[in-house]
Amino acid sequence: MSQNMRMPRAGLSLEFPQSLGVYDKYQQAQKAVDFLSDHEFPVQNCMIVGTELKQIERVTGRLTTGRVAVGGLLSGVWMGLFVGLIFSLFDNGASAGAVIVSTALFGAVFGLVWAMVGYAATRGQRDFTSVSQVVATRYEVLVEHKFAAQGRELLSTMPGYNAGQFN
Fold first, then answer.
1. Which of 13, 28, 45, 114 satisfies CB 3.0 to 4.6 Å to 23 for a cystine?
2. Which CATH fold would you assign to the domain 3-57+137-165?
3. How far is CA 1 from CA 8, 43, 82, 107, 157, in A?
4. What secondary structure, in 3-state letters, does the chain show?
């Protein structure tokens, strides 16, 4: 692994960060930073960090051979149309329509075969479709150490302030 892969980007790190508060919802952390900004706090020294990550996967449907075939076919048609349109731009003859149709048909066959081979390779181990997302369960507002006291003092004047939000 290269040195750059292990080091966070300079814009995504703080020198000696300290916590200004921990919130259950992102909107609460965002509201705290917005409050600081409205009171001319140097918010460029703040970060909102999602912690306690969890992955959520929502099952959206059953995956059948027919759905896989139709998906592969349509995907292949779109790819074939794209390639056909590119080829037709460089074709000086009147056969541009034939080129587009033939590449779309070839793409459909290729997409169908490719999708079915991929589906067969799974051997029925994942016969469903889903979408997934990684979400944080808590959000912490961090600030450079030299601004921590000022930030805490300012947030203590925020309407709805809860002293339990601070570490």
1. 28
2. Alpha-Beta Plaits (3.30.70)
3. 14, 33, 37, 38, 46
4. CCHHHHCCCHHHCCCCEEEEEEECCHHHHHHHHHHHHHCCCCHHHEEEEEEEEEEEEEEEEECCHHHHHHHHHHHHHHHHHHHHHHHHHCCCCCCHHHHHHHHHHHHHHHHHHHHHHHHHHHCCCCCEEEEEEEEEEEEEEEEEHHHHHHHHHHHCCCCCCCHHHCC
pLDDT tens, 143-162? 999 999 999 999 999 988 76
Put simply, whether the predicted model's pTM sits higher than 0.90 gets the answer no
